[in-house]
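If you are new to this repository, start here. Below is one unmodified record pulled from the training split, so you can see the exact layout before writing a loader.
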Amino acid sequence: MSPTFTHRLEILSNIAVIVAAVAVCAAVARQYLPSPSATTSESFRDKTLNMASITLTPATQNVVLVLSQSCRFCEEEMPFYRTLGEIAVRAKTHVYAMFPPTENEPDKYLERHSVRTDGVVSGRLDGVGVRGTPTLLLVDANGKIERAWVGALNDAQEKGVLQAIQRTL
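And here is the target side for that same chain:
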């Protein structure tokens, strides 16, 4: 075999190894890092939230914002949460914010961002599958989680949230 043929064969085999490694990494990522749509549809299927721990009088439709003051994405979503709170009033939807128990004065944090809520509570939601912030839950009066959105929302997801809460108008 000539040196050029051997060199070309070596280059092709290196490319093949790189392509195979990328394919394996993609398969592993797909299996162990679910997409946001998979997380939102599967993690909360058939889960309920104890609304009594949030309010004594839940509305027919409730939005629970699970936030953290140290969450960069929560901070970025504040303008949307402000809009959500305004539209929720017209839709007769209650909006509650839940923060980790270690956070100080979460109500003042929301007030600083002009986000309207019907209540702010501290608590752990890991029992219903919430693993990170921000998470937005649409919950009926019985505490059944109807829809969930995890992470920062894109424009289409924000429109979907607003359409979901306006369906009762």
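Two things worth knowing about this chain: Residues 1-33 form one domain. Strands lie at 61-66, 94-99, 119-122, 135-140, 145-150.
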